[in-house]
């Protein structure tokens, strides 16, 4: 176990009893990979899914674990529960874990816009978290990658308005959608995650439609960005599109600032932002793409150029692996912050 950043005293190591709720899903699987890669200090691991998966075996760091149900997981009172099991599961079960003393980091949309819950991208606003926060919300995948690039630019130039078009991976819809695309490639019939074929198609429809004509996904981009950047004066509008891509989400983002900018300075700001990688050299066809973002934790920004149709306005193209920085990595980074800042009281072991 790598212990450097978790060391308390020479003879004590912070160790965590961790539950992964939704361990059999797309995000859950990546969550386990990220926990292992980052050597998160786990003393006991509880893998949780729906009743239909109880008893299923999953391996983690060479050991085999049996999937358990939510009741058994709450009774175990883990220190941290990483939830990615859908909104209704979170609404019902996150408070039960919180009551048992567990800190929940939730990937669903259930708690994101709750005024009493923190919506956290660690590079931007982890310092808002306190020990009282027993349910912490992980933002939507499309929002996370966008605010990673917007936050440092907002600090410097103050954002007025953002126009977003997304090109979102099928992995954002979970295992059912990946199966739909695989079936369509193979020319086989099967369960449909979308109302139409996704193979050789683009669906201007991510999540459900609201009465105002926008999809929930589009409104998440608007509301979550305002909450994370802590600025309700920013105007945003979005069109979210599902494309037959597996490696990550791409976004065309047009940003109008209050203040003018020098492109070279703006590029430097992005270059110096932790977690952001500028890939932008059109001379040699360098720009972010999901096939290169897949499996990586960074957010890639390219096609950075001035929008000449109006003052103080920028175009950029932002790509990230929605299952990693858009979900699992961001959640694990929050957990790491809770540990390293002593925000949760972990189980202690003598070594
Ligand atoms: N995919 C992304 O890029 C992404 C990004 C950010 C956030 N999210 C959010 O993360 C959550 C999971 O997404 P996903 O893509 O991983 O979906 P998924 O592949 O469909 O997996 C869903 C997981 O939730 C479990 N689950 C479903 N109903 C349950 C219940 N009643 N009790 C306990 N566990 C239950 C499933 O267990 P079984 O296998 O037993 O059914 C499975 O482990 C969603 O809320 C989604 O909005 C996803």
Summarize the structure.
The chain has 351 residues and is of the alpha/beta class. The chain is built from 10 helices and 15 strands. It folds into 2 domains: 151 residues, Rossmann fold; 181 residues, Dihydrodipicolinate Reductase, domain 2.
| Low-confidence parts | 1-5, 7-12
Largest sheet: 7 strands, mixed
Shape: globular
Count of helix runs:
10
Instruction: Report the CATH C-level class of the largest domain.
Output: Alpha Beta
CATH topology of the largest domain: Dihydrodipicolinate Reductase, domain 2
Could you say which small molecules are bound to this protein? NADP nicotinamide-adenine-dinucleotide phosphate
Written as H for each helix and E for each strand, in order along the chain, the element string is EEHEEEHEHEHEHEHHEEHEHEEHE
Mean pLDDT: 95
Q: Give helix % range.
A: 25-40%
Number of domains: 2
CATH architecture of the largest domain: 2-Layer Sandwich
Question: Rounded to an integer, what's the Rg over CA atoms?
Answer: 20 Å
What class, by secondary structure content?
alpha/beta
Report how far apart the termini are.
Answer: 12 Å
Q: CATH-wise, what's the superfamily of the largest domain? A: Dihydrodipicolinate Reductase, domain 2
How much β-strand is present in the residues?
25-35%
The number of strands is 15
């Amino acid at each position: 176990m790598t212990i450097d950043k978790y060391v308390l005293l020479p003879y004590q190591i912070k160790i965590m009893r961790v539950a992964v709720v939704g361990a059999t899903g797309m995000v859950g699987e990546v969550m386990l990979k990220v926990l292992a890669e980052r050597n998160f200090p786990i003393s006991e691991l509880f893998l949780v899914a729906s009743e239909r998966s109880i008893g299923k075996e999953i391996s983690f760091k060479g050991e085999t674990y049996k999937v358990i149900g939510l009741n058994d997981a709450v009774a175990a009172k883990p220190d941290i529960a990483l939830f990615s099991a859908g909104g209704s599961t979170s609404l019902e079960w996150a408070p039960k874990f919180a009551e048992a003393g567990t800190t929940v980091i939730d990937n669903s949309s259930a708690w994101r816009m709750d005024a009493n819950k923190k919506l956290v991208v660690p590079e931007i606003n982890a310092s808002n978290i306190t020990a009282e926060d027993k349910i912490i919300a992980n933002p939507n995948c499309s929002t996370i990658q966008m605010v990673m690039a917007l936050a440092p630019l907002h600090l410097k130039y103050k954002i007025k308005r953002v126009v977003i078009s997304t090109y979102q991976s099928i992995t954002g819809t979970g295992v059912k959608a990946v199966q739909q695309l695989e079936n369509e490639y193979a020319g086989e019939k099967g369960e449909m995650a979308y109302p139409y074929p996704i193979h050789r198609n683009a669906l201007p429809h991510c999540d459900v439609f609201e009465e105002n004509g926008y999809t929930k996904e589009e409104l998440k981009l608007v509301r979550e960005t305002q909450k994370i950047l802590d600025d309700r004066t920013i105007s945003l509008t979005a069109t979210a599109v599902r494309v037959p891509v597996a490696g990550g989400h791409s976004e065309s983002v047009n940003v109008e600032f209050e203040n003018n900018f020098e492109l070279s300075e703006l590029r430097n700001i992005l270059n110096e932002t932790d977690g952001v990688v500028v890939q932008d050299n059109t001379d040699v066809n360098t720009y972010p793409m999901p096939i290169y973002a897949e499996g990586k934790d960074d957010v890639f920004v390219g096609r950075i150029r001035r929008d000449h149709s109006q003052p103080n306005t920028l175009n950029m193209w932002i790509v990230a692996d929605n299952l990693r920085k858009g979900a699992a990595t961001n959640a694990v980074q929050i957990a790491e912050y809770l540990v390293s800042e002593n925000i949760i009281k972990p189980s202690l072991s003598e070594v």
